[in-house]
Design goal:
binds shikimate-3-phosphate, globular, four-stranded mixed sheet, alpha/beta, 26% strand, 29% helix
């Protein structure tokens, strides 16, 4: 929600070896999509393992506002009785998506081809993020939008009364843009075609097919050409949300940088469109193994085992960026503890995430005594190696959960404690982070103000 909660300062202290099993929460991307597709289906969708972070709770509330019946029946267990494709009702009030870029962009796409009007807002972070990348393609379907400068929220969208199918080449490597276009195509007669030059996470395509839509992906020399036939009848599904590789990244990376650690992170989805971080860590010399490899719901899944490692900086290729786009903040913490430089290229999308993540990481790492270089599209972190990261600073989190968790992990390995001005944003994607990390042996405290 876009409330103005009081900041929650946090401090992370040097930790002894992290040991044990880390059961991380459900996948954020798949959780949003489960609720939205459940709302667009006929019948009752039963979801287990839903991430109950604030971002996803905001999407659940939004689906209720558009007319679906969304009910929590137990921990991570939810039921959605959908209204069917084209069945969205006009919300009576403003839709507040809180901190969630994925939530607002996917929901805007979904409503853009229904004859209803909705107004969207969010917290200060979300209100500063660009929405033109979504409203431009939605305008081609016939949807009108009235936002602030640059299409920023609050924004009112007037859905197309007679949507026309669209053939759209996404100018950015973004699964949110792809998904907004495909969701808009659902209530549009004819074929909607989305072309992406670089492959991004493909949960929307996999899940649309699972709900019964006619969707194909063709790999061409221009990239993936995804074709969706409009106005399918989506059938309710039972969904078991896999655990989030982007959340697994925090206990995995903390184990790699805290001496003596050995942590098992079970049941992690290793969809290749999400697994770039783990490839990168192995190239840096991480003692990271995939145990019990198997396939679940058509996705590769494994238990990850991470042990403290002697790491060396590498150059991370730009082509890998989409498959690890949310993991650069925690990778830059690992890089700070490694020997030599880690060069991250092709990362300009980080500037328009929940915060400008290149700037947030660079300033925080510098405050902790690490040398950093950056340009618009590149981040270079000079690792401290055996000398260790001095730490001893308070880092600004800019309403960004991944910046917060990254600096808390740094504090576990640094010579002096690392503090956050506000750890509150952690709850958007990983509400059990503090207890889970404490269970492994980490020391995170919430200093009480005077
Ligand atoms: C997401 C896509 C990514 C990612 C975000 C989740 C999704 O954003 O950063 O956390 O679920 O589609 P972009 O599509 O803007 O890269």
């Amino acid at each position: 929600m876009s409330g103005h909660a009081a900041p929650i300062p946090m401090t992370s202290q040097k930790s002894g070896p992290l040991k044990g099993v880390a059961d991380v929460p459900g996948d954020k991307s798949i959780s949003h999509r489960s609720l939205i597709l459940g709302a667009l289906s006929v019948g009752q969708t039963a979801i287990t393992g839903l991430l109950e972070g604030q971002d996803v709770l905001d999407t659940a509330r939004a689906m209720t506002a558009f007319g679906a019946n969304v009910e929590r029946i137990g921990a991570g267990a939810w039921q959605v009785n959908g209204v069917g494709v084209g069945g969205f009702a006009e919300p009576e009030n403003v839709i507040d998506c809180g901190n969630a870029g994925t939530g607002v962009r996917l929901i805007m796409g979904t409503m853009a081809t229904s004859p209803i009007t909705a107004t969207f807002t969010g917290d200060a972070s979300l209100r500063s993020r660009p929405m033109g990348r979504i409203t431009d393609p939605l305008a081609l379907f016939g949807a009108l939008s009235f936002g602030r400068k640059g299409g920023r929220l609050p924004l009112t969208m007037v859905g197309a009364k007679k949507p026309v199918p669209v053939r759209y080449t996404s100018p950015v490597a973004s699964a949110q843009v792809k998904s907004a276009v495909l969701f808009a195509g659902l209530n549009t007669i004819g074929e909607t075609v989305l072309i992406e030059a670089e492959a991004t996470r493909d949960h929307t395509e996999r899940m649309l097919a699972g709900f019964g839509a006619d969707i194909t992906t063709e790999a061409t020399n221009k990239g993936n050409v995804i074709t969706l036939k409009g106005q399918p009848e989506l059938q309710a599904q039972n969904i078991n949300v896999p655990r989030d590789p982007s959340s697994a990244a925090f206990p995995v990376c903390a184990a790699l940088i805290v001496e003596g650690s050995d942590v098992l992170v079970p049941n992690i989805g290793l969809n290749p469109t999400r697994a770039g971080l783990f490839t990168t860590l192995i190239e840096m010399g991480a003692d990271l193994s995939y145990e019990n490899m198997r396939s679940e719901g058509g996705e590769p899944v494994a238990d990850l085992r991470a042990r403290f490692s002697d790491l060396t900086g590498i150059e991370v290729p730009a082509e890998r960026a989409a498959s690890m786009i949310d993991e650069y903040p925690i990778l830059s913490v690992v890089a700070a503890c490694a020997n030599g430089a880690t060069i991250m290229r092709g990362v300009k999308e980080l500037r328009v995430k929940e915060s400008d993540r290149i700037d947030a990481m660079a300033r925080g790492l510098e405050a902790c005594g690490v040398r950093v270089e950056e340009d618009e599209d590149t981040l270079i972190v000079h690792g401290m190696g055996a000398a260790g990261v001095p730490g001893g600073a308070t880092c600004k989190t800019h309403l960004d959960h991944r910046i917060a968790m990254s600096f808390l992990c740094l504090g576990m390995a640094a010579q002096n404690p690392v503090s956050l001005d506000d750890g509150g944003p952690v709850a958007t994607s990983f509400p059990i982070f503090e207890t889970l990390m404490a269970g492994l042996g980490a020391r995170i405290t919430r200093p009480v103000g005077d």
